[in-house]
Amino acid sequence: MEMKCVQTSGAPAAIGPYSQAIQAGDLVFCSGQLGLDPNTGEFAAGDVRGQARRALENLKTVLEAAGSDLAHVVKTTVFLVDMVDFKAMNEIYETFFPEAPPARSAVAVRELPRGGLVEIEAMAVRRSNG
């Protein structure tokens, strides 16, 4: 099976030794996305809602660069610094996955890179070309 690194300038560059995503055959494995603006490198304004929205927009951009999209996501993992933010994150999350949302785990973590409030990773299948 051929594996390919996926990189796009439309999402923040990796802040460590990893790829934004790896395409393996028809599968796409996306690294976690923080709520960073790819143009400024700064967190989206506001609370966890703003960061969750930006993280999902970044994830969407990475998926598109890999030949997929949010409709083809099969599993996500959401990392939250505080479970108090679970409801607010869900309010944003459901707008990105309005129908048949993917399987998901949501876990609380002690901290996230650069002091983020939320990070979201995904696994998807590529869109068929036919």
Highlighted features:
single chain; 130 residues; alpha+beta; 60s Ribosomal Protein L30, Chain: A; six-stranded mixed sheet; 2 helices
List the helices and strands and how they pair.
Blueprint: E1 3-6, E2 21-24, E3 27-34, H1 48-65, E4 73-80, H2 86-96, E5 103-108, E6 118-125
Helix pairs in contact: 1-2
How would you describe the overall organization of this protein?
With 130 residues, the chain is an alpha+beta fold. It is built from two helices and six strands, in the order βββαβαββ. It has a six-stranded mixed beta sheet, with helices on one face. Helix 2 links the parallel strand 4 and strand 5. Helix 1 packs parallel to helix 2. The longest helix is centred in the middle third of the chain and has 18 residues.
Separate helix tally: 2
| First-to-last CA distance | 21 Å
* Class per helix and strand makeup: alpha+beta
Sheet with most strands: strand arrangement? 1-2-3-6-4-5
The helix-strand sequence is: EEEHEHEE
Helix % is: 10-25%
The quaternary structure here is: single chain
Tell me about the largest β-sheet: 6 strands, mixed
Total individual domains: 1
| Unreliably modeled segments | none
- Looking at CATH, the homologous superfamily is RutC-like
Name the average pLDDT: 95
Strand-residue proportion: 25-35%
CATH class: Alpha Beta
The value of Rg in angstroms is: 14 Å
Q: Count the strands? A: 6
| Inertia-based shape | globular
State the CATH architecture: 2-Layer Sandwich
CATH fold call:
60s Ribosomal Protein L30, Chain: A
